[in-house]
Amino acid sequence: MAPPSTPSGARTDGGAETRDAPSDAAGDGDDAAGASAIDVDGLQLTYADGTEAVRGVDLTVPAGEFFGFLGPNGAGKTTTIKVFATLLLPTSGEARVNGFDVTADPARVRQSIGYMAQETSVDPELTAEENIRFACEAYGVPRGDRDERIDELLDLVDLSDVRDKRAEEFSGGMKKRLDAATALVHRPPLVFLDEPTTGLDPKARNRLWDYFERINDRGTTIFLTTQYLEEADQLCDRLAVILDGDIVSEGSPADLKRRVGGEILEVDLDEDVDPERAASLARETGLFEAGSVEPTEGGLAVTSREARERGTDLLVALRDADVRVIGFNVRSPTLDDVFLSITGENVEVESDTELGGRR
Ligand SMILES: Nc1ncnc2c1ncn2[C@@H]1O[C@H](COP(=O)(O)OP(=O)(O)OP(=O)(O)O)[C@@H](O)[C@H]1O
């Protein structure tokens, strides 16, 4: 029934693509100077089975930006990144990466980017050090710089102690960390990171974020997808949210949070109280006409510009209706609230492989 799942004319989509990239990531000297790091116009990608994964994305990411690309599972993030990394050909539209057209000039796009895919592409038969050395060779890192670069990257990703161990002995998180190191060996001016820290424990994750911040401070553009919204909030200058292949919201984290429309009043209810009934009562008070009142697990969430000043009135109204409140809190919106208000769902976070639990 289903035809092959790659788009017609697609390049292979195998995972070790950047290893083929020629050398001299940043220093080509012949690129479109001053161009945006990413410039996209009407990008569409329909897979051969008819799935419209990307439906007309317009996007500009200035050089030097730390950009976050968010969206629920299946929204089109990885497909978009793969077009930027020249692993998939767009069905229509244009995308320029570091000034080079992804369709007309894929080799030069590849020279100018680093790409850390969701699936790790480390070679299990090689040691940690050999994996990085291999990447140095593939990317043409000057011979004299390699030892220092390898030491720096092993230290960065906390693998110095196991540099001589084969990657097949590593945990999933250790492989991720090694993969991050190999994507950065050639110090590319633009790095695509597709969920680079999923599965890492908080310490390893923070270490990587520190490094990403450091390379961004040095001028490297970062295009990141992540499940950890508080990290997107902390790191990204600007974000776009993609939903069903369309960008539905774009702006700085503060802009997006402002668009949620006020503060959030969270009310915890006694377990005997039905949150749906309490939400109906809260709506009937008419206190938050410009906002929203939603039942949550065990309580209510009111999003409103009047959440703070009218919160007490709501608590009194609930008490008068014999609805037992056991706690409440008014807070500013987070990116989780942004995500929820845009997509109608909470972001799903996979278990940490190294911790065996959620963060
Ligand atoms: N090779 C393929 N053939 C057909 N459909 C595909 C293929 N790869 C992805 N899709 C579909 O395209 C849509 C976008 O998928 P994509 O992987 O780009 O989403 P995503 O936002 O990166 O999701 P996730 O966060 O789960 O990685 C989904 O409906 C997905 O099922």
UniProtKB/TrEMBL annotation:
Name of the protein in its database record: ATP-binding cassette domain-containing protein
Q: What is the lineage of its organism?
A: Archaea, Methanobacteriati, Methanobacteriota, Stenosarchaea group, Halobacteria
* Family, as annotated: Belongs to the ABC transporter superfamily. Drug exporter-1 (DrugE1) (TC 3.A.1.105) family.
Q: Name one GO molecular function term.
A: ATP binding
Report which superkingdom the organism of origin falls in: Archaea
Read off the Pfam families from this record: ABC_tran, DrrA1-3_C
- PANTHER family named in the record: ABC TRANSPORTER ATP-BINDING PROTEIN (PTHR42711), ABC TRANSPORTER ATP-BINDING PROTEIN NATA (PTHR42711:SF5)
For region Disordered, the annotated ranges are 1-33
Q: Where is the ABC transporter domain?
A: 38-269
UniProt keywords (A-Z) are: ATP-binding, Nucleotide-binding, Transport
Q: What organism is the protein native to?
A: Halorubrum miltondacostae
